Model the fold of this input.
Amino acid sequence: MKTKHRFTLLLTAAMLCLQMGSARAQQIPPAGFSEAKQIEVLKSEAGFKEKQDACRALALGGTKEAVPALAALLGDEKLSHMARYALEQINDPAGTTALREALGTAKGLPLVGVIGSVGTMRDVTAIAPLTKILNGGDAEAADAAAHALGRIGTAASAKALMGALAKPTPMLYDGILRCAESLPAKDAAALYDAIRKPPAPQPIRMAALRSAIIARGEQGAPLLIEALRGNDHAPALAAIQAARELKGTGVTKVLATELESGKLAADRQLLLVQALGNRRDKVAGPQLLAVAKKSEGDLRAMAVKSMVQIGDASALPFFAEMAAADDAEVAKAARAGLSGFVGREADAPIAGMFQSTNPKARIAAAELANQRRMTTAIPQLLRGAGDADAAVATASLRTLGEIGGNAEAPALIKILTSGTSMPAAEGALSAIYTRTRDASVGNALSAALPTAPVPAKLGLMRVLRRVGGPTALATLRTAMSDTNEEVRENAMRNMGEWPTVDALPDLLTLAKTPPTPTIKILALRGILRLIPLQTVSSAEKLSSLKESLALVERPEEKRLALAALGGIPTAESLALVMQELANPALRAEATLTAVAIGEELTKTQPAVVSEAMGLVMKATEDKQLIKRAQALVR
Amino acid sequence: MPSEEKPTPEPAPKISRRSFLHKSFAAGTVLSFPLVVPSRVLGLDGAVAPNSKIALGAIGIQGRGSQVLGAMLGEPGVQFVAICDIQRKQREAIKNMADKRYGNTDCGMHRDLRELLARPDIDAVLIATGDRWHSMGSIMAARAGKDVYTEKPVGTCVSEVQSVDDTVRRHARVFQVGTQRRSISNFQTAVNIAQSGKIGKVHTLHAGIVRPGGGRGWLPEQPQPPKEEVDWDLWLGAAPWRPYNAGYVGGGWRGHDDFDSGFGVNEWGSHTVDLCQWANNADNTVPIEYWNEPEKIVCRYANGVKLVLEFLKDPFGDRSPQFITSTGTCPVRYVGDEGWVETGDSGSIEVSSPALKSEILALKRAGAGTDPGTHTSNFFQCVRSRALTNANSIVMRHSHIACHAAGIAWKLNRRLTFDPAKEMFVNDAEANRMLSRPTREPWKI
Done:
């Protein structure tokens, strides 16, 4: 048993070590650090930089051993800061004592710095000398003392600060606010109360009021309400900040009740509604809903936004009601509440919106179904796709495209071939296929094409082109012989834009025997685009290019050919490109392509490249290009 | 510097600076517009009443600051009234820009930010200095009763970060740090995808950062210009003193530990780590473990999620293989057990599956991730409503502390454990000594 217990202990210790990783305790001074050496520098006649670096080093690795040498520098105008830089980090009682003693010896800016460090060390034994400085004639030092006493944060330092209130300064107020944060809530509230009234300036009164409310906890609610109801805007703003921060459901209840009471002016209601949203406490849901129902404009919009923030499911039917409101802000907020609601409770209200007589509501329903990926709404969406209102049909089809699947393809093809909402149906089919990549969609489209009316055929062919694949290609090939001229031409155009290299033989045939010059151009462009995509040898690509080049007549396509040649870094392609140097219309592209090929080819065929670059340099005036060509000349 | 040059045409207070500060403060600074709360009047739809102007001052405006100030000037209901800069040429350039825009000569100029902050007519400030002044400027502005929009990173060390948050809350000020990606739609959408479970349970967050670095060397000493031209002592602020060199003032302060933040981790980390914190619902905490791996710093949250700070070999060029270059600078990638989502400053979002693509179809093309427009709008809305901004001080505190902790782990090159409640390292005195930097007198955090 004992052995088992020991084993458990060892295991626990090992696990703790593992959890700690290599984060073993790092002691000061760290290994390899020579404190004595740094102290020696401080005592020497070394320059400022050396002494500054010594202080930096001691800040990281020094101990109480370094305190005397550092303390000696506290009155030094140049080095006082760096001495404190180290002393604060060493954080040894000896250093704290040295700083306190320097309160009586340092002058000017070094004294101001020393006071600051005493505050950082929270040296409670320094309160008396700091109080003396606070009430003395050196204004800069008095400011520093107020700051330090605030940081020390005890009842005694608070007393010292409050004793100086007859001659207030910004830093004195800051010190009081800061000091209060360290005190028990009751004492803190007393300090805040003392400065949340004139002659304290307005910003301090606002800060003190906010803190006075928070310090009181739930008991601060009456003070909050009082400020909220008051005539002055500044206290109301401070109260609103407190309303966001003050914790507790009890506080939310008080605030919600105040909202319900109707005692607040419109601007304050708006602020409170916003703050209740920020609190994210569902307790305020009924009051916010009531405000949203009975108000309009900005207040209604804000109430809806706040209900969205607290995420109360009971507000969802109201959101559905407001999603098509005439007020765009209200509608936007309500939709955000429906689309962003976590949980399926929002689905039913959205489904109900499909039944609305208001087309705007039906459109909103379709869009929300999309945002929430509501596949349960597909039956309603399919009905919506046939809605008499074109905008509803378009929105429904868009959503079907986004969340529908292969099962919806036949219905969408039917809609497309029926001649209504064709572009939207076409878009939906493309979106479904893009997402699912299921060949059955292509097959269904191919099957529908022969019997579809002409306008629908054009749309089906565009989708087929996006779908791709052998079945779709074959369908398009057949359509290129359709009896209808418009269908034929569109089939050829889609062939010209076919995304994959399997269309190359068809395109070559088209380019050689084009029905019109335009189709020839489109076919050639398709060829020149697809050749570089082939996964064949450079020689085969070059062969294809040469074959198509023989058909090219216009400079525009020749430029495309040059671009394709640029991707084939062989001596033969370089030679083809060089032929175009004499052509003024293509010289710029030819020189650029030649250099690009040259840069790839120079490792294997430097002589060929060098000779070509000599010609390029003569043919171009582009300095950058000449520089690149020059680099390839041997 | 030629002494015969015309004196700087700025209003020099006849009374002493200190006296001026106290008198102005006593007069009371409050929002200088009547509070009309309805959202449309609050600027939510761009209809701010003419008498509801927010008076804005700016501190330290150069490249990035000019972009942010430009966005702020386009805000309805905002009137830019004063520039503060330690460089005369910058003060004058910004004043000229403002006066030209408003068709008057009203824009005030100040060399010392204490003068600007003492003006009772200023409601809010934009701080766009170098890193070393972001925290001190924010703290001083909050104490002076101003609302604050400051550029990132905030705080050259953890204690400064903490002090900014504490002071802002203590003085009930509205605060926004310039991590504008919090207000840009593609980043919001990516975070939403991660938080909503659409990529399954998130287990790893990748944040692109610039490779850390830094040092303590000095640039060669140069003759110090007259204070009115370049106030070197003010430029240094709370940082340790060192001799003047124009290179620092011209932007060459980066890479110097005294002026930079988190050994450079915070430069992009304040954005990208922040976005990861957000995706992990960790705005109120930080990772608990930090360690180095080749070309990255790895952190682990208490919930087991890993945060990986990826060093980019070419942050403004090829960001592969860690990220998809086309998503742009400051990239983040959230990985769950069912997929991933990545985005960046280009505005595009990449996702792991076609199903997720539909999530981003409705997304309007976002502007560049560097565009501060929606972020500054959010700030001014909150100045009026006193609501929390998108990148408020609490959000800033935790994301910046996470960056600092990662930077310290990188510097010490050892595994560190961090206590998020105490905001201190566990069992590592040396690391803890790197959490704070005593300020040079007379500056106080």
